[in-house]
Design a protein that fits this description.
Strands 1, 2, 5, 6, 7, 8, 9, 19, 20 and 21 form a ten-stranded mixed β-sheet that branches. A four-stranded antiparallel β-sheet has the order 12-13-15-14. Strands 16-11-17 form a three-stranded mixed β-sheet. Helix content is about 35%, strand content about 15%. It is an alpha/beta fold. The chain binds zinc ion. Zinc ion binds near residues 10, 49 and 204.
């Protein structure tokens, strides 16, 4: 049976890969596309990294899992939220199925796969949603070997003020990428495995910072981003292609190579303040007084930080400013300012690429029902779209996925195919056309619905695929290993990509396995908050 190496490039899209292949910059991608099966891969709605990689690993849709974001509701009895973590994957991911049947698996930097848990092989945490702390490998004794390659600092903080200079950003990104490629090469050569799945987040970070350099090309410089950087954007992708070549060289031709991404990419432009709008429409009420005072403190804090950055004094007192940055504001909006008795709908602070509105059933008054309020908000959002000439998608999860797991948002909102950032403050300008708040002004691009799938090797044939979805990948890989597909995996086997057309066998033994294991500690959770906020993902 052939081994399979899956290489995940976060945010990879054919909108970049196709033109760069045509320019001759990506010879390895070109060869794999020519030899194997390829096509775009529909992301989760909305296309958010954490739940998208979860769908890739488990074959489950967000409608089944309830995971639409990095944050998920802790319980349906309270308005508290937690981060998606490895215990959500445990017993459900394809590597758990393969582990149980004796296959050796190796996971590397898979987003949200923290803390590491025992598998028949290795689990090296380090992707998005993993804190930059020790204790990131299973088994524990390989941590030293990985640290020898990647060092202690395994992430690139996009909000770093030094990255206004794109040269500095690109140097750090390149160093971080190269270190991770070397660590993966080491593991591929030294260890025995049947499935290795590695994820590189650097392509996502590149595109968040430099999308418009690519899109606008040499001709038109983006605000604060000089012309000519489209070349550097292309060069980074050429490095990613070279990494594919290096990893292929480690494994040989008798191994399947599968390249996937969690979502596509496009430019960022408008913004919409969803909670401020819900307040204006009378659905969201705040407790008296508190929020205004908080907003003033927040403004002062930001002002102080900006002045300090401008004067470059952060360099001389870095400890204080790191402290100030970490301690004062949480990633989510301060939910304790919400007057829950009188609030019928709010967004608890979901990631900027989505609005996730919850209906508070306890606050419904005479004559109001859950359905009425939900339909009314959807209608008003569509009207808002018409007024602004925006394409507003305001969707019920069950209409997208046929089901809605407990704890899911009641309405998913996405505007202009994701180019509109959904801000979560309680006040401020509701609609803005070409302006982002300072804290995320570094964002140049954001997520779109179409990821990539490219697969070549002994088990795959040449084909152009249409209509593949993230949740089809786990069933397809299990099938290629000759394993039955568990019934909770909603995805289908992509038969047209595979050489042998064997019947998909379904394992009817199990229901959706319960989530097990530990949640993040407070320290780990704070580290994840900081990481996601630094990427501009939360407020
Ligand atoms: Zn992503």
């Amino acid at each position: 049976m052939a081994k399979t190496l899956v290489i995940g490039f976060d945010g990879a899209t054919f909108d970049v890969i196709r033109p760069l292949v045509d320019e001759g910059l990506l010879p390895n991608f070109k060869q794999l596309i020519e030899k194997g099966a390829s096509g775009s891969l529909l992301s989760t709605m909305p296309p958010v990294t954490g739940p998208a990689w979860f769908a890739l690993a488990t074959g489950m849709t967000p409608g089944q899992s309830g995971f639409f974001d990095f944050i998920v509701r802790s319980s349906c009895d309270s308005w508290s939220f937690r981060f998606l973590d490895s215990s959500d994957f445990k017993n459900r991911a394809l590597w758990d199925v393969l582990s149980r049947s004796g296959k050796k698996v190796c996971l590397f930097n898979y987003p949200c796969l923290y803390p590491p848990y025992p598998v028949n092989g290795f689990m090296i945490s380090g992707g998005l949603g993993s804190p930059n702390l020790s204790g990131f490998t299973y088994p524990a004794d390989i941590e030293g070997r990985i640290t020898d390659f990647v060092g202690r600092n395994r992430q690139v903080d996009l909000s770093d003020a030094r990255y206004k200079d794109l040269e500095v950003f690109l140097t750090d990104l390149q160093t971080n990428f190269e270190a991770n490629v070397q660590a993966v090469e080491h593991v591929l050569k030294q260890e025995r495995w049947d499935l290795t799945w590695v994820v590189f987040s650097q392509t996502d970070w590149l595109q968040h910072m430099m999308w418009k350099c690519f899109e606008n090309g040499q001709a038109k410089a983006d605000k604060g981003r000089p012309a000519g950087y489209d070349r550097r954007f292309r060069d980074f992708w050429a490095c990613a292609d070279a990494a594919v070549g290096r990893l292929r060289a480690c494994v040989g031709d008798d191994t399947n190579i599968v390249i996937v991404s969690d979502h596509g990419f496009g430019s960022v432009g408008e913004s919409f303040r969803v909670n401020a709008w819900l307040r204006q429409e009378g659905y969201l009420k705040l407790v008296r007084g508190g929020w205004k005072g908080f907003a003033v403190v927040k403004k002062m804090r930001n002002l102080l930080r900006n002045v300090a950055a401008a004067l470059a004094i952060t360099r001389f007192f870095p400890g204080f400013f790191v402290w100030a940055k970490n301690k004062t504001i949480s990633v989510m909006i301060p939910l304790h300012f919400i007057d829950y008795e009188n609030t019928t709908a709010f967004d608890p602070g979901h990631i900027g690429s989505m609005g996730g509105i919850y209906i508070n059933g306890e606050a419904l008054k005479d004559g109001q029902t859950y359905d009425n309020i939900r339909n009314e908000i959807i209608e008003k959002l569509q009207q808002l779209g018409k007024q602004n000439h925006w394409n507003v998608e305001a969707l019920k999860p069950e209409d997208v996925y046929g089901q809605k797991a407990a704890g899911s948002p009641d309405i998913i909102v996405r505007i202009n195919d994701g180019s509109c950032v959904m801000l979560k403050e309680f006040d401020g300008q509701i609609v803005e056309y070409d302006k982002l708040p300072d804290r995320i002004s570094f964002l140049s691009g954001t997520h779109r619905m179409d990821g990539v799938f490219i697969a070549a090797g002994p088990d795959f044939r040449h084909a152009r695929l249409d209509g593949a979805r993230l949740w089809d990948i786990a069933p397809t890989l299990l099938h290629s290993f000759g394993e039955p597909v568990p019934p909770y995996m909603e995805g289908r086997v992509l038969q047209q990509a595979l050489k042998s057309n064997g019947q998909t066998s379904r394992d009817h033994a199990c229901e959706i396995p319960d989530q097990q294991g530990s949640r993040l500690t407070r320290e780990e959770e704070q580290a994840v908050r900081k990481q996601l906020r630094d990427l501009g993902y939360f407020e």
